[in-house]
Amino acid sequence: MQFDDDANLDTSEVQDVRGSRIPGGRATVGGGVIGLIALLLGLFLGVGPDQLGLSSGGESPQPAASSLAQVQQSCRTGRDANSRDDCRAVAVVNSVQDYWTQEFQRQGRRYTGSPTVFFSDRVGTACGVATAAVGPFYCPGDRKVYLDLGFFDDLRTKFGSSGGPFAQAYVIAHEYGHHVQDLLGVLDRSRDGLTGASSNSVRTELQADCYAGVWAHHATTTPDESTGRPLITSLPTSDIEDGLSAAAAVGDDRIQERYQGRVTPETWTHGSAQQRQQWFLQGYRTGDMAGCDTFR
User: Fold this and answer.
1) Is the pLDDT of residue 154 over 50?
2) Which of 2, 97, 194, 208 has the fewest beta carbons closer than 10 A?
3) pLDDT tier at 241 (50, 70, 90 boundaries)?
4) Residue 157: predicted pLDDT
């Protein structure tokens, strides 16, 4: 994945609170093996910590003594995105939101932007206090995407993904898929508390995978506001393969087999490896969000 060196990055779409201090109580999840499995099933590409039994309350981060404006200072152009992980994430956020802004306009709708929050250790949200162990998530309470960049190392070393820049992009695009669902009034379908291979929770996650694929289809043709040219200039097949590897690595069946030694489809919340790949490819091949109706 290559970015236009001369494009200007819009860092206003990212809030960098790495190094912040959260006052008050601790974020908690269930202990023991059951707690671990529950966390592993929900920690990647989930909707938010409110579904994982995290502590209540949305304490605001207290800035550390050092500057927290790393992104604003360092991520200025596409050239920076080609050399730094955090700047790459900024560029992906810009590209994803540019696409959905234009797609909503085409449909006669209004897209409301969602900031991505870079954090480390733990962060206060409208959905509760979350630790970095929760992984990337979207919180509908404040309509923000939360991301600990260290997760991408875990994706490769703990979950067996091939890694690569586009694996990161896929994760971000999936979370913005949840934001799109939120704007369209679809996200609430996942809140019925049911699990299983055909549950609304799984259908919601697979649709977000499909929306990530739709963005990827248009990533190299969506014009950037600063240049009028696409921010992403190259997205070779090898990048798409990295995205598919990430999708498969966090399928419910793969995670269950790895951490509990058996597959129990009745407890699925996100879908199998095959389903996740299938729906990402559905979006990528068609480029049409209308083809992402996983609820039919």
Assistant:
1) yes
2) 194
3) very high
4) 83
